[in-house]
Structures are given as C-alpha cells and as structure tokens.
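Thought: the user wants the 3D structure for the chain below. I'll pass the sequence to the structure tool as-is, report back what it returns, then summarize two notable features.
Action: structure_tool
Action Input:
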Amino acid sequence: MMNTKETAKKIRQELKEKFPFTKFSVRCERSGSINVSWTDFPTERAVEDVVSKYEQVQRCEVTGEILSGGNLFVFTCQTWTEEMKKKIETEVRNNYGESYLNDRACYYRAFNETAEKMYQEYLETLENQKEASKQTKKTQQEQQQADVKATYTLNEELNGIEITFNTVPSEEVRNELKTNGFRWSKYKKVWYAKQTAERLEFAKMLAGEAKEQTEEVTELAEATQECEHHETLADAYNVHKSLIDLIATNRQFNDTLRMTDLKPYVVILQNAYYDVKENNKYSFVQSIDVYNAVNALQNSELFNILKSEYITGSEHDNTQQAEERKEAQESINIDNNQQENEQEVFSIIPKVQENALNLQFFSNPTSSGDVLNLFDNIDLTQEKTLISDEDREHINKLEESYRATLSVFENHLQQLQELHGQYGDYFDVTEETFSFLRGDVHEIEKRIECLKSDFISKICRYFTKKYNITIDYESIRNKYNTLVTSQEIISEIIEQLDGFSFIEKAQQEIKSQLQKETSYIKTKVKNNKISLNNFFYIDSFEIQFGKYKISYNSYDRAIILFKALYLFDSGAINLSEELKERVKSLRYSENNNVFTTHELNMKKIKSIKLYKNGRVDIEFTSSHYAREFAKDFLNIVKAA
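Observation:
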C-alpha cells in the first residue's frame, strides 16, 4: 500500500498526463489527507473522476459509518479567474436569463452546467485542432512521398544493385528496403545489396516501372474500402432483419441462447437492434460485426436446433415455406398473434417451465451422440434454480414501477421538447419567465438516466442484501440504456456468479475474505485449537485513558471471522441475531469484557478468546473440526 507522499506523486503525475495545459497543486496534509487545487478548467467533476480512486476510506460493514484510523481523503478545490468567471456568467445570462444570476440556488446549478458545457466545447475544439494538425501533417507527408523518386543502378563489377532517392524516403520504404536485404552506405549515399531476381524486381517497382499495376491495385482497394465504409448499421440490419428481430424480441429464445457459447453473438445482434431502432449515431456495433455474428450463428448446429424449437411458421422465418404458412394462417391467427406479441412485449420475467426446451428431437437415435455433446453448452436449470418465486415476484413489481415511472418522464420530456421547439428560442430572447425551459429539458433527461441507474441498482442491492454477495453494479449500468429489462439484469448477475448459486457464491466470498485477512499473519493449528497471531489491533487512543478496546479496523475483521465461524458451523451465510449482538458488544466493550474467553456453544466451535497482544484462539469441539476449518477457510492443508 502506498503512503501519502507516494499517492500524491501518483495523483500529480496522472493529472499532468490527463490535463497537460493545467497547473495543479497537490499537497499532503499532516492529517493524512491530500489537497488538489487549480484555476479555471478542467471542471471539478473531471478532476474528481481522476482522484477519487486514490481515496482509501474504510466503513463499518454493519452501520456504514466511516472508521477512524488509516483513512486517506483527497479533497479538490477549484478557483476561477475573474475573466473566466465573467465569461461563464455571460453565457448563463444568455442561456438562462438574468434571474438566474440573482437567485443563488439557480445560479450555482446554471453556473456549473454552463462551465461543464464550455469545457466540453473546449475539448471538442482541442480535439478538432489535433485532428486537423494530424491531417495536415499526413497530407504533407503523402505529398513529400509522392515527390520521392527512386533510381536503381546495376553494379556489374560487384554484381550488386544500388538504389538512390532524390530525398529521404519514408520509414515504411526504408523498412521494405531492409526486409529485401538492402543496406545503407554512408560512404556512397546509396542503398545496396547483392543482385538477385527478387531484389531486381523490387528495385524496378521502386523506380516506378511497376507503377501502373500498383495504382490499379490501390484504386481497387480504395473502392472496396469506400463501399464498406458507406454501408451503415441499418443496412446490415435490414439484410438480416427477420433473424435479428427474432433474437431481440423473443425473450425466451434470447435467454436460452445467452446460456450457451453463442452469447457474444446474441449480444451484438441485440445491441444492433436497439441502436437501429433508436437511430443511435454513436453505436459501438459496426456492420461487419453484424455479418460476422449472423454467419457464426447460422453455421452453428446448436443455434439451428434451438431455432427450430422456438420459431413458428408465423414469426421471423426467412424461408419460402414459412412465408406460405404465414399467408395461409394470417387471417385466422391475426388476433391470437396480436395477443402473443403484446404479452411478449409487456411481460416482465417469464417463469421458466420444467421443460423450457422441446426435446422431441432427442428421440432420433441417429442424432443422440451429437445432441449429448450439445448439452455441455446449455445449463437448463440455472435460472430456474437460482431465481425463486419470491425473487421473481419482487423484481416484477420493481420493473412494473420502473416502466410506469419511465413512461411518465418520457411523456413529460416529449412535451417539453415540443414546447421548446415551438417557443423556446423566442421566450429565451424576449421573456425571462420561460428561460428555464431549456434547462428543464436537460434536467428531465438526467432524471431519466438516473431512473435507469436506480432500477439496476435496486435489483443488484436486493440480491446483495439477501444473499450477502458482491455484485459489480457499475458494469451493468454502463452496458444498458433505458430499455434494459429485469431479465437482462438478472442474466448479468447470474454471469457474475461464475457458475455458482447465490449461496455458493456467498460462501466462497466469506472464505476468500478470511483467507485474505490471515494471509500475512502467523497461524498455528494444534489439537482442537487454532491461534491467529496479530489478528486484532488495540485502539491506541483509548490506551491513554486506561481502556483497552479493539480498533475500528479490527472490528471489520471480527465480523469476517464470526461470519466464517458461523458458516462453518451451520452453513448459513448470514449471522444469527445472537452473534450480531456478540460482535457489536466487542466494538463498544473494553478491558476484560473484550479480552477474555467468549463461549459460543456451537456444534463444532466451543469458544473464542481474545488477547491484548492481538492474538485470537479458536477452540473447536474436536481436532477434526479444527483441521477442517484450517483447510477450508484458512487454506492450510497440513495441520498439526
């Protein structure tokens, strides 16, 4: 772990690389904190995004409050020059109206938003300048290389080839010369090599004798590249529209594919579907990605088998036979199809049936061997066994409330956008009363994004709290837009379980936490007792008052240890109420009430004893249990 000075040095270095045009002051304080200050841009939020990861703040796992000792805080302080402040206030006056300068609450919000906008415009201008500079430099280099002329001479006396240029050739040409065996002669100022048929052809090409052929190949490559460049994601989607629509809209089919090795291709096509529907100009999916994903799926025997089980003659089939069936049944089944489509769109989390896949094709004895191999790619019971009816009911209610709230905000946003398009510019100029209209549109857009994040967070917190596991919420939030469904969130959570159930994942995390806390301390196993040296630390502040208490940091270790002991004894991942009270008493008690023998009276564990030197003794009811705990929870294979 880095000390405060090393951390400050790292922060200073990263800020210099990230914002080369700004001078930062990074200072260490005696309190163990770091102060970062600067003038004008970048914005405070941009700097906090960089320095926040260097903070080291420990919190109590039970109460959530900040623990004393060992914390490292990083504070940011931004100041504005009078010139820049006046520029921002002028923009606030033009965009929001004079009233925002007089109302302090509105002023700070408008000032920060305007500063952020000006900073983004500054970055875009800087990026455009860099791009223009690169393009100019590239054009100059291309022009220079176009003017480069090479001539070759056959040295009959030495049986060699000598190549000269009218100016310095590019690095690419020099590398080609070296690859073909040519070396630079400082004395004669030529590139020379022994004469061979291949080198002679290469020299002729450089001299321009193969120029026409090279230009034809270049023009053909440029034409092909231009054709590929102009093909949009929408074009690729339209080519395979029926297949992509099937994968994106058939939830049950989509979920089944996601439990196989075909998941990456399914994700690409689903993202392409949403990007085209939303007319997203900044999609990360390219047309070539769509073609590659479709080809991979169509060439997969597993995909074709699953597709035949889910697809019907009335939905998403490209074949002529399916089209004929669709036309014949259209007049009869139009009402039924309408109901099925509505159910598919508005269903939250469809319940997984016992036989989610139609396995009739397994009855064919000729294909049984192939099908058995395909079973390795599908976990038919994963979601069914992981998500209980109680979980499903709770999450369905969450999604229902999310959809209803999102609909209200989106309707409100649409109304504001229509008003702004109709009257916004007029009122911004002539009437200060309506100058907030533009800001309100931006606020609603932010609220909608926060609503999506909160929806994902609530589902993640539900499983985190219930099953005592950690979930990478940020990766899920950054991956999806407001169209995210609870089914997609659950699929991401299940993927993070790495094949374990929720209970198994919690058990693994409890074991890993204890192994991490004991990896650097001396552990002794003898008979039915395990001793952990220096496991606890004494609160040095309380000692001066004659009180011996464990430190706040050690309190977190106590929680980890008791969780591991209770898991080992009962298999439960959450502490019982009795043990919770016992752990809390360790935090607020002192002297002999802490550093003594605590009887636990469990099936496998008899007692635990704390010493003032930081040692902990755990007494088990038998030596067998002591060795078993040491092996499974402390990663000690050999025990005395």
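Final Answer: Structure generated. DSSP finds 26 helices and twelve strands in the chain. The mean pLDDT is 75.
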